[in-house]
Design brief:
Blueprint: E1 9-11, E2 19-21, E3 25-28, E4 33-36, E5 49-52, E6 55-58, E7 76-78, E8 83-85, E9 99-101, E10 106-108, E11 113-117, H1 123-135, H2 152-155, E12 159-162, H3 165-208, E13 223-225, E14 233-235, E15 239-242, E16 247-251, E17 264-265, E18 269-272, E19 289-290, H4 292-295, E20 302-303, E21 308-311, E22 313-314, E23 323-325, E24 333-335, E25 339-344, H5 351-360, H6 362-369, E26 376-377, H7 380-385, E27 387-390, H8 393-436, H9 443-447, H10 461-464
Helix pairs in contact: 1-8, 3-5, 3-8
Length: 482
C-alpha cells in the first residue's frame, strides 16, 4: 500500500490525538456518543453477552454456571451497533482490548459502560475511534478513584475527530478489508505454531514417559505395569511414586480476594499466573507484579529458581497439570491461585525432567484427577499425590538433554513464527490508529477495493486472548457471592 497524508491539518486540542485533517470536525465526546442504560426488567432478554479481549461474544451456557439468574434483571440491554467499554481498574490494568462492538442483541452486566453513536457518526467508525483511544493507552489518563474507574462524565469533553459520513464509510471499508487480511495471515501462522507445538509434545511424550530409550532411539527391552491409569506400562527399572516423595516444600497461591488484578503494579514481586506456565516452558511475555509491602501480607507463596510450577486449571489446549521450571530471571516471585509451586529434592530428580514428565502426562492425568464442571481443575492435594515416573538420575539427565536437542529447531521455528505474529499485531495496531486519526488518507485506496461479500467476523481465540486466565467480568454475581 502507498498511502499519503492529507493536504493540511489542524490541532485537535488533544495531546494523544494530535493534529487531524483540516476538513474533519472536532466535537467533544458528548456530541459524538450518548451513554445508554436500559435495564433488563422482567428478564425480557436472556442472551448473556461478554466482553472478551476486544470482542463482544455470546456467553456459552456452560460459562453461566454459578451466576444467579435473578441478577440478570440488573443487566443492561444492548443492541447491534452499540459500543461497550470495560471501565474498571484502569490504573492497574495495562492491557488494551477493553472496547467492543455489539453484534447481537442481548444483555451485559451493568458494570460496563454502553454507548451509542450519535446521528451522522458511523457506529463502526465510532467504535474504531474508541478502540484507538484504548490501544494508544490514552484511556489511562481518565477515570477517578483509587482504582481509577471510568465513567462517561470523565471523558465527555474529550475531542473526537469526525470525518464526513462518506469518508467514515471509506475508512471503515478500508480497515475491514485489511484487518481481515492481517487476521487471516496471523491465523495461518498460528496454525503453523500449533503444528510445531504438537510435534514438540510428541517428542517430549515418547521420551519422558519411556516409550523410547533416548540412548538408542528404540523402545526399552522390558516394561512393567505402572499400576496408574495415565502412566500405563513403564520401563522395568523406572520407579513409580507420588510427587510428594520427591518434594521438599509446596504451596498454592492466595485464594479469593487476597490477590486480584487491582493489586498489580509496574514492578516489584513477580506474580506467576496460569498463562506463564507453558508446556514444559516458562512463558515470560505476560508479566505482572505486586508491591513487596503487599506481598509481605500474603504469607509464603514464594518462588525460587528451579522450582517446578504446575497449573491447577486448564482447558483442552492447555491442560491442567502441565508444568515448567522457574527461571532465575523472575526472582523474587510468587504463585497466584491455581498455580502450584513444588520445591523438589535435587538428589532424587532432575527438575526439568519432572516438568517434562508432568506435561507429557497432563492430558491423561487431568482426565482422571480434574473436578471442574466447565474447566479442568486439579487441587494441590491431588497434585501432591499424583503419580510420576522416576528413572535413575543419570538417565533423567540424558532424557532432558535428548529432548532439548530434538526440539531445538522446532523451538527456533516457533520463536520466529511468534515474532512474525507479534510484528503483524503491532502493524495492525499502528495502521488502525493512523487511519482512524487521519494520519493517513485512505479515500482513494478504499475506492479501489472490491466489495467483498459479507462474512462473519473471523474468530481467532489464540490471537485475541491470553492462553489462560480469562478476564474477570465486573459486576457478575455468583451463587457463592449471593
Amino acid at each position: 500500500m502507498h498511502l499519503n497524508k492529507y493536504p493540511s491539518y489542524k490541532d485537535s486540542g488533544s495531546p494523544w490525538l494530535g493534529v487531524v485533517p483540516k476538513h474533519w470536525a472536532v466535537r467533544p465526546a458528548f456530541g459524538a456518543y450518548s451513554p445508554i442504560l436500559e435495564r433488563n426488567k422482567g428478564m425480557k432478554e436472556k442472551t448473556v453477552l461478554s466482553l472478551s479481549y476486544g470482542r463482544i461474544i455470546v456467553k456459552p451456557a456452560e460459562k453461566l454456571h454459578g451466576l444467579v439468574p435473578e441478577s440478570f434483571e440488573t443487566y443492561q440491554i444492548v443492541n447491534p451497533g452499540d459500543i461497550v467499554l470495560r471501565t474498571t481498574d484502569l490504573q492497574n490494568d495495562h492491557t488494551s482490548l477493553r472496547v467492543g462492538m455489539v453484534r447481537d442483541r442481548g444483555i451485559i452486566t451493568s458494570a460496563y459502560l454502553a454507548l451509542r453513536a450519535n446521528a451522522g457518526f458511523n457506529s463502526d467508525f465510532a467504535y474504531q475511534f474508541l478502540n484507538v483511544w484504548d490501544m494508544s493507552k490514552a484511556i489511562y489518563g481518565y477515570g477517578s478513584g483509587l482504582r481509577q474507574n471510568l465513567d462517561f462524565v470523565h471523558f465527555k469533553r474529550m475531542p473526537v475527530a469526525i470525518p464526513s459520513p462518506d469518508e467514515q464509510s471509506a475508512i471503515v471499508k478500508f480497515l475491514d478489508h485489511y484487518d481481515r487480511k492481517i487476521k487471516r495471515y496471523i491465523k495461518a501462522k498460528l496454525k503453523l505454531v500449533k503444528l510445531l507445538e504438537e510435534q514438540k509434545q510428541s517428542i517430549i511424550h515418547r521420551a519422558a514417559t519411556g516409550q523410547i530409550d533416548v540412548r538408542t532411539g528404540k523402545p526399552y527391552a522390558n516394561y512393567k505395569p505402572s499400576g496408574v491409569e495415565w502412566l500405563g506400562n513403564v520401563p522395568e527399572h523406572w520407579d513409580v511414586m507420588p510427587l510428594r516423595r520427591v518434594t521438599i516444600a509446596r504451596c498454592d497461591g492466595p485464594f479469593g480476594s487476597g490477590l486480584k488484578s487491582l493489586h498489580y503494579t509496574n514492578d516489584g514481586v513477580r506474580v506467576i499466573r496460569l498463562q506463564n506456565i507453558g508446556h514444559a516452558t516458562f512463558r515470560d511475555s505476560d508479566a505482572a507484579f505486586i508491591a513487596p509491602e503487599y506481598y509481605a501480607t500474603l504469607g509464603d507463596h514464594s518462588v525460587e529458581a528451579g522450582d517446578v510450577l504446575i497449573a491447577g486449571l486448564g482447558d483442552e489446549r492447555h491442560p491442567a497439570g502441565r508444568a515448567c521450571v522457574a527461571p532465575v530471571s523472575i526472582v523474587p516471585a510468587m504463585v497466584k491461585a491455581d498455580c502450584f509451586r513444588f520445591r523438589l529434592n535435587s538428589r532424587r530428580v532432575n527438575f526439568d525432567f519432572v516438568a517434562l514428565h508432568l506435561t507429557a502426562t497432563a492430558v491423561a492425568a487431568s482426565a482422571v484427577l480434574s473436578t471442574g464442571a466447565t474447566r479442568q481443575r486439579i487441587n494441590l492435594q491431588s497434585t501432591t499425590a499424583r503419580a510420576i515416573c522416576v528413572p535413575p538420575p543419570c538417565e533423567q539427565d540424558k532424557i532432558v538433554t535428548a529432548i532439548s536437542n530434538d526440539t531445538m529447531m522446532l523451538n527456533a521455528t516457533t520463536d520466529r513464527a511468534n515474532q512474525e505474529i507479534s510484528l503483524l499485531r503491532e502493524y495492525r495496531t499502528r495502521l488502525i490508529a493512523d487511519v482512524v486519526t487521519g494520519k493517513l488518507d485512505v479515500r482513494e485506496a478504499a475506492k479501489n477495493l472490491s466489495d467483498e461479500p459479507t462474512e462473519p467476523e473471523e474468530t481467532i481465540d489464540e490471537e485475541l486472548s491470553p492462553d489462560e486466565e480469562p478476564e474477570e467480568q465486573p459486576g457478575e454475581t455468583t451463587e457463592e457471592e449471593a
